[in-house]
Amino acid sequence: MSRRLLAAVVALVLGAAAPAGAQLPIPEVTRGSAPVYVGAAVEPRPFDGAFAVPRHPHMAPNGRSNLHEDAFQTDTVAPGRVAPLGDGTRRTASRLFVQECASITFDSRGQAVTVCVGLAQPTLRVLDPVTLEERAALDLPPRNPLAGTGNPLTSFGGGGYFFLDDRDRAVIPTADRHVRVVQVGPEPSLRQVADVALTSAVADGDSVISALPDWSGRIWFATSRGVVGTVDLASGTVRATPTGEGIGNSFAVDRDGSVSLVTDAALYRFEAGDDGVPRAVWRLAYDDVGVVKPGQTQAGSGTTPTLMGEDLVAFTDNADPMHVVVAQRGREADGERVVCRQPVFRPGASATDQSLIVAGRTIVVENNHGYQLASSLAGGSSAAPGLARVDLDEDGRGCRVVWTSEERAPSVVPKLSLETGLVYTYTKDQGSDAWYLTALDVRDGSTRWKALGGASLGFNNNYAPITVAPDGAILLGVLGGVVRFADARPPHLAPRPAPSRGSAQRAPLLSARCLPRGRVRLAVRSPGVRRATFTAGRRTRTVRARPYAVTLPRAARVAVRVLRRSGAVRRASRRLRC
What we know:
The chain is 3% helix and 39% strand.
């Protein structure tokens, strides 16, 4: 590519403005010999054993609410939702906005709702989810180029993280240190309905990275300079606690009201006091080489922490090599708080700036070491390989690497479809300027197929996530705007066979045996149990070790709630006839 042509592409994607009202595709320079498609279609192979993440009562349904799929930040696409299977998968549309439409949500009518962020002014947009045509737009406050990381291409403040609530309202932390609430209407339309200033707690030059609600509806926020706060949208009351440690990513919210958050130095559990002030319940420091590795946006963990099942949280440290770390997230720890610390990728070439995928006791981590914006221009250079699957041991103590892929995913947030059994990522090979939607088999890490995104700077996703749309297509924010991938034929789901009645009778989860003197013996007959909570009438008892059995006063109805080591929860109940 000539220097003059290279300069023209940079100007087009990073600085030029699309004509008013135009609906233009993202321009390509040339793809050369890069194939449009590699691989073959696959049959869906559901990945079972994942924890059923509850829907947050104050957010849109899981998969529609925020860039990490759910409030637990699992980056898993729930069972029953379709995703591409490689059946003629191709880029079906692209739309040029000269802004990166990274975080994409979907309202109750299926419209794509996104905040597109460029060098200057972010824009809230409503897009047709198939054609990507703009249906409505609202300009947001302009960004301060010196706030956050000091680099507008690596700072996620100003709307990069936002969420869609349960009433089709976009809740956006904006660049002027406010939280704005915008109603998405059916026309479609965008109308601001609330605006709360955070300036009393967030200093000039700081940047609000993310905002999410806890289960009570209180909004939490975090800033690049380490302020953790809460805001009551109704009263405008803001409460905040400084950590003194930088924050580069979002956080996870649990059903018990707690927030899991990682700074450049430590993992925290925060809770709000009666006065709304965030308080650190515990702090877990992690190994850190203390530098911003190539491919990271800050000196520390690059992950938004991910909740695993009922009682664990996963993230990465910033050691060399980097480790996947799993810790107990409760107020009190049963023994050592850290239950797993597994090194991944090669020394001197391991870093991530993406959240982990978590499905049950399976974790998928991506390597971004070496990614820089210029690497998408420098004659086909890329980042270090690859992706890795790490599984927590069945006893919940320790973990191991199951596979490592050599695919190079410079900076995308990958997703795992529990229905197809595929990990979706966005790759760029050494020696090529072509970007590909790439599907890996979660069981063995093998590459099943690739579909070309494009071959220019405009198709660089620059930290944006894979987003699986309600119709099974994939939308992806890129520097030029947004692209859409879909199968040639819409994917369909084969009905799952129900367990046979006979097998259920042979292996009941709950065993109950009547004893003399009005007592009952309850037991769990299942492998891989971490904790069992038995109920007989009004009596409840929790057992955390073998044998998972109790003796309780006899009642007409008995039940058990089982937490597996994988993080999955099962329940069973029965009537007694003694």
